[in-house]
# Entry
Amino acid sequence: MAHRAVHIPVIFIVSTYSFTAFCLYILVSFARFETVKADNVFSASHTTTVPVAAARDLRYLLYDVNPPEGFNLRRDVYIRMASLVKTLRKEGDDWVLVLPPWGRLYHWQSPKIHQIHIPWGEFFSLTSLQANVPVIEYEEFIAENGGPFIDQVLVLQNYAEGWTDGKWEEKVDERSCIEKLMYSKDKQGYYRGWFWGYEETRARNVRCISAQGHASIMAPVLQKNITVTSVMLDRAETLLHDHYAGKDYWDTRRSMVFAKHLRLIGDDFRAKYLNSTDDRDHTIYSEDWTRMKAKLGSAKGGPYLGVHLRRKDFIWGHREDVPSLKGAVKKIRSLMKKHKLDKVFIATDADEEELKELKKLLPDMVRFEPSTEDLELFKDGGVAIIDQWICAHARVFIGTSVSTFSFRIHEEREILGFDPKTTYSRFCGDTEKECEQPTHWKIVY
Ligand SMILES: Nc1nc2c(ncn2[C@@H]2O[C@H](COP(=O)(O)OP(=O)(O)OP(=O)(O)O)[C@@H](O)[C@H]2O)c(=O)[nH]1
Ligand SMILES: *[C@@H]1O[C@H](CO)[C@@H](O)[C@H](O)[C@H]1NC(C)=O
Ligand SMILES: *[C@@H]1O[C@H](CO)[C@@H](O)[C@H](O)[C@H]1NC(C)=O
# Structure
């Protein structure tokens, strides 16, 4: 299963962060200092301060991610691409990020519902995203571009030889493709591929690029080596964060505001089943994320314990850091007692059989269970967001070890202003010896 691999980038970023990120940060800051003087890089009017203002062509950056990666790692890759677009916009052309339609995700298995070609607007607030970096939906790109054509696809890959002498260095080079190319030429000489399930989409050219480093190492290549209008980076997860948990990371993360209809469903559910309202719980949310600066510890949260219990592929491998259901319920009971909470909300991807067992062990648990019509409307991604939203508003939260789903809840709680003591804890495996708890990443405003 590809899920082992899925976790590597996350752990990697966290572990390399200390020794590379600092250097990267310095590098990037220097580049910034040279080109733009403290202006707003996203406003159309900043052309006046850029030396090459005369020819600011509109260009499109598209991207896609390795198919087995889940929803929440894809949200993380978006942050890296937004950062790259910010770097690109500092010099030269007017780059716009094209949002890759959602669909065909491994975990989205609800039968009989159409889960392909899903625009970002169904899950996130587009105006919020746009307040951070210019973005458009894929279908808008097709319309603006005059057809479903992408000029250049760059398939990103690592270096065949790995790290030379075990030394980490940043580099990018055109190389022959290491893996079998997922694109093939049609009779007209165009390249056909997955393209988010848009069969009519084709590429004029496909090349492989070996890249090792942070997202913005692609900037010089896109600015200087390539002159065509639309470029797609496939396997974009190959690139690392420019500056993990830095200001730019958090700006983009804060701009990823959930779509309003999903937040409203979550809020109604909180009020109805969990006696939780923003007024009482001090979780007032500003529609404009740039004004959202809640002080740590200001949020109280609803009178319930929020739980993210990741199962499925996390238990198939008999991982040491994932508890049995009995172990999880024991922990839940003790947390409820400790914090004097009589309600518990559970978000989980557990299968039918495990759910039955869980209900037996914890008959009073509350879950968001969408009707068939609701599921058709929100889709698996929307239901996941509603679950995350409800967990994000709990008085106390506990998640699952190295689950990107849990990580996104941590960030949401950080934005809402919860005391870190109520957020950064996870279940321990039944026999786990050293149960390291999640890291607190503070928002940089
Ligand atoms: N509604 C709901 N869906 C969940 C829950 N936990 C997992 N899922 C589903 O399973 C997917 C989990 O994959 P990811 O989003 O990638 O998060 P992850 O737990 O880190 O898993 P990997 O990244 O695949 O290792 C989610 O996108 C959901 O579709 C949950 O508590 N509620
Ligand atoms: C980009 O162009 C430079 C200069 O021509 C060249 O040295 C470099 O190898 C090219 N990079 C890529 C990734 O094609
Ligand atoms: C809901 O919470 C309020 C304030 O904490 C409390 O006064 C009220 O009794 C609660 N209602 C229910 C139904 O638990």
